[in-house]
Write a structure and sequence with these properties.
- The chain has about 230 residues and is α+β, with helices and mostly antiparallel strands.
- A 9-stranded antiparallel sheet has the order 1-2-3-4-9-8-7-5-6.
- Helices cover about 35% and strands about 30% of the residues.
Length: about 230
Amino acid sequence: MKSIIIIFLLFSFITFSQNKSDVRNTSWGMTKNEVISSEYPLKPKIKDDEISYENVDIGNGYEATILYFFKNERLSNITFIVHGSEYLINTCDKITPFINKVSSAEYIFNDLKNKNYLCSLGWRLSNGDGKSLYDYKDKIKELRNCNTETNTLKFIQEKAIENNSSRISVSFANKRTFLTFTFNEHQNSPHTDEIRKLGINSRCDGFFFNIRFWMKYEPSNEVMNETSKSRF
């Protein structure tokens, strides 16, 4: 009887822990050791307030560098840098189009629905320093709902080229987490034309130019306030 009770309690604890997970097997406010344990047997690189994992399989044939950031020794930000297995052979003249990058993330968009994520800020264009170049949220209805249909994506890409935007972002949120996807529009990078004129491809062959997209997870303001009171 005691064995049955112990097994039941253990199962309940595991189930509760899984349900509390915010991103992968982690939850906001975790310590570094807790995050490392959650990713075992993956081997971490530890630097100050950052833990990173490289070449992590995230499904659908894609790998990612995952960066866990900490504030006051507690988990406060998770960033995925996502690339495909073929990323090393890309060049300035062979860059994955924006629409294809969004298609690469479609399986993640679908998974978000199961985790109660809803569209938050809609589609946005910006330049490399993060400053907004064009705000469509209040002007164009079809871009308020994080639509990933082909016609919408073609429209966004046209506007990105028209406004020389180098970044395209879209955000989602649930009660505990805010998530932003960011896609590079490399052909609009101020460096690309300069490199092509010089006949230098090293910058284009680099890792940065071949990133499919970034995913940045952050705790909601409510969760941040809760963890600040109870742990920080």
